[in-house]
Structure prediction request, 335 residues.
Amino acid sequence: MYRKIFILISLVLLILVGCQDKEVVKEDNGFSGKRNVKTVAARMGEINTYLKYSGKIEAETIANASPSMSGKVEKLFVKEGDHVKVGDLLVKLDETQLEQTRIQFENAEQNYLRMQKLLESDAIDKQTFDEVKTGYNIVKSTYEFMLDNIEMKAPISGIVTYIYKKEGEKFDSMMDPFLIRIVNSSKFKAKLQVSDKDINKLKKGQKAIVTIDNSDEEFYGLVSYVSPEAEMMSGTFPIEISINNDSNLLKHNQFARIDLITQSSSNTIIIPQESVLKSSYVFVAANGIAEKREVTLGIGNEEEIEIKSGITKGEEVIISGNIGLQAGDKVEIRN
Prediction:
């Protein structure tokens, strides 16, 4: 009898201890009845909508400089990467041919002067003198041409990006494309192809933002050319954008990403796209309570959207934890 009572009391005690343990666990799980959320302060600023394209950057001014005559490259005064100004000496060709032409010119000049005196004394006829004079003028023009072109000077200011021939090699003015390429790095243009569905959204003077892989800097430009017709093969429209290169980070023939701005709104309230629910309302965290705000939306892009009414600058809009949230729910910001 006592044994049964002892067993019964023991079971009751075990049940009570178990209940107490569960209550302790429940108290230690940290639940406070608040929804954990992340917020971002609504900011005042400028927002743009844009078309995203990729293209190639080119310098607006490029000079493929070449001597007007053929000859062996005797001396190069620049190397690739050098900065040059207009008129700087770039290259000198071998003077062997020039020297031979100089001798021919001096002989022709002496013969011409002698014939001129003979003509004055009627020792020769006018036809003979004219033939000598024509020969002299030809040799003179050839010599002056070679004298002017034995040295080549920079036609523009910029950076030497490519030298086609080395010292000692022969440059052929008829066969070789050029001798030295100079790129003016102050102004660049981005070239891209725009689809038929987007072409009517673009016009000259529109703003664009250009980015490149080797820099975090954004380069701002303006649409300078919109083709009036599509290319026959691709069906796309060539577009050009003028860009200043004040930082000298842009390079000729470089790949770039271009955002063509189609709409812009400044001095307006901007919040992240993920804070807007069902395109009509957002939740604001105020004094630990979720407030539901009906909003009027403006323009937007992939990341942000304009708020025309319903939110003021500095209010903490909920961007995470807002799904299923109800007005009046307690929230705890865990940014």
Remarks:
- The chain has a mean pLDDT of 88.
- The CA atoms of residues 290 and 328 lie 5 Å apart.
